[in-house]
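Sequence decides. Our protein:
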Amino acid sequence: MNKLRQIDDDQLVQRFFEHDYRDRGILKWQGYYLSDHTAALKKQAKQEAKKYPARTQQSLEEMSQLLSQAYANGQTVSIQLNNRDLDGHFLPDLVGKVIGYEDDRVYLAGQKGVALGDVRNVERGSRR
C-alpha cells in the first residue's frame, strides 16, 4: 500500500509541474538585489554604452614626435589603441603624462607600457 501511495504522489507532483506551476522566472529574484549592486550594474551598463569613434591612423614618426614633445614638456596625452572589444568597438583612450620610453614602448603615469605598434592615434591633452 505504501509503494502505491508513493507512485500516486510522484504522478501528482509530475502533473503539478507540467500543468499547474507557473514559474515567475527572474521576477522572484528581484528582491535580492541590493541598492549598491543595482547602482554598480547601472554604472557598468552606462560605461558599456559609450562608443569611442575611430581616429585616423597616424604614422610611427608622427606618433613618436608627439610623444617625444609631450615627454619633454611634461604634457598629458590621449592614446587610442588599435585594440577593440568583442563587439568591434574601440576601447577608451589611455590618458596620462608620458613618464618614459624604452625601445618601442612608451610609459604613461599610472599605466603599463604600451607598444607603439599597438597605438593608432596620439593627441595632446585628455579626451575623457
